[in-house]
Amino acid sequence: MGRLESSTESRPARLMTMRRGRGAIVKESKMTEILITGGGLAGLNIAREFARSGTPVVITIRQINSRIEKILGEYRDLITVESINLARGGEVFDLFSRYGFRGVIHTVQAHQQAQTRAANRANYDMLFNCLEAADTTGTSRFIHVSSIAVYSGMAPPLEEEARFPSRPVLDEDPDTFCFADLEDNRILAVPAFETTVKRALELIVLDYASPMQMGLSAALQPNQRFRDSKMDVAVVRFSTQFGPGYTNMGSPISRAVHTLAGRDGLMEGTGYGGMPLVPLWNRIAIAPLLYVRDTASALVRMMQAEQLAHQVYNLSSGYTTSPREQLLALYRIAPNAADLLHVDPEALRAEPYRTGSFNANLLQQDIGWTSGFSFEQAVEDYIRWLQDHPY
Asked: Is 353:285 a contact under the CB 8 Å cutoff?
């Protein structure tokens, strides 16, 4: 895939109109190269990073809201928001036919909010619809966003070429990627069903790297031809993200940063899974941190690269996995952190967790990407952003 231009000066003027559809006003563009599915934490920051380099993008969301507008900020002219249900094939093919995307970054997901297995069908519908539309309309590169969760229960090394067992189970290795509950019982890092869904979605994407072949018992119909897929596909596995646009408030580190930025009462109560914040911080740190602006810069570099030598990449900012070291870094950044956070460093694990080889080394080797922020720089940048974008 050829390198994207870094500015819009050589492009024809973009045709911009306002269109009311599906209950919201959206901008319609005829000259956009990149589609980002999903307006969550990763998607919005990736869109901003492309726009920062002068590349126009389209981002899809289910419903436009004030939070989206605040995050887009000064880049509204380069980011077109489409309100669309990606689980509906007709809407997806209409979108792709109107824009002719060169690249797609698929970040949208539904499984974390789904209450039943059946509700997860939307994940497969959205992915198949986007893959088929991309393949049909000549998209050059399709990048699917996955997660470190695919390694749940596995012993290290957690490398890109690791092979998954048929079902998520806990390996006996003491360095297995797993969490501990409040009674210190080892449990899967994420529920088995979520792990299974993420693994299945990866397999579907990677299958599109090869031309379609029928089963041996299938009969070729008269005039039937298969398209030789020219689409370049890749999977990128994220670690635990934090940074501008985060709103879930289940993560202790994000609650701490929001507190330092001026929010009150966030260091009380519980986080993910209803677990008290200090025990949760001690357990969740087993997954390396990923600053969301690193996420964005890595995805832009992946889309701009002439070629990707591999189809699967891990992504982490490479920060310490010691909860105590993370807290002490916050204390160094903000002189009043101890008074605001009310967390005793002695209550947090001092020894860093082993990352099990989950790092961005392969990405650095192939395209030269490295983290643009130290942990302290990331926190300072995050605090500044929160102070400028209160919501």
From this structure: yes
CA distance 117 to 106: 21
Identify whether the C-beta of residue 37 lies closer than 8 Å to the C-beta of residue 30.
no
Tokens for 295?
């996420």
User: Residue holding tokens 């809407």?
Assistant: 91
184, with CB counted inside 10 A (0-12, 13-18, 19+), is exposed
CA dist 256 and 330 (Å) reads 8
CA-CA distance, 253 to 379, in Å (whole number)?
10
Q: How far is CA 121 from the centre of its chain?
A: 20
Q: Can you read off the two tokens belonging to residue 3?
A: 């390198």
What would the pLDDT profile of 158-202 be if each residue is shown by its tens digit? 999 999 998 999 999 999 999 988 888 999 998 899 899 999 999
Neighbouring residues of 10: CB distance < 8 A, sequence distance ≥ 6: none
Query: For residue range 75-92, what is the model confidence (pLDDT) as tens digits?
Result: 888 999 999 999 999 999
Token reading at 170: 């806990």
- The strand pair at 34-37 and 57-61 is best described as parallel
And the tokens for 202? 């990866």
Q: Are 359 and 288 in contact (CB under 8 A)?
A: yes
Question: How confident is the model over 53-74, as a mean pLDDT?
Answer: 82
* Model confidence, pTM: 0.89
Q: Which helix (H) or strand (E) holds 328?
A: helix 323-333
Higher pLDDT, 4 or 280: 280
Q: Which two tokens stand for residue 273?
A: 């899974």
What CA–CA distances, in Å, run from 383 to 71, 216, 254, 297, 375? Answer: 15, 58, 10, 19, 12
The pLDDT tens digits for 324-380 are 999 999 999 998 999 999 999 999 999 999 999 999 999 999 999 999 999 999 999
Q: Are 36 and 55 in contact (CB under 8 A)?
A: no
Residue count of the chain: 391
**Quick one: pLDDT at residue 113?**
60
Residue in this structure with the two tokens 């299945």, named with its chain if needed:
200
Burial class (CB in 10 A: 0-12, 13-18, 19+), 59: buried
Spatial neighbors of 182 by CB under 8 A, at least 6 apart, are: 275, 279
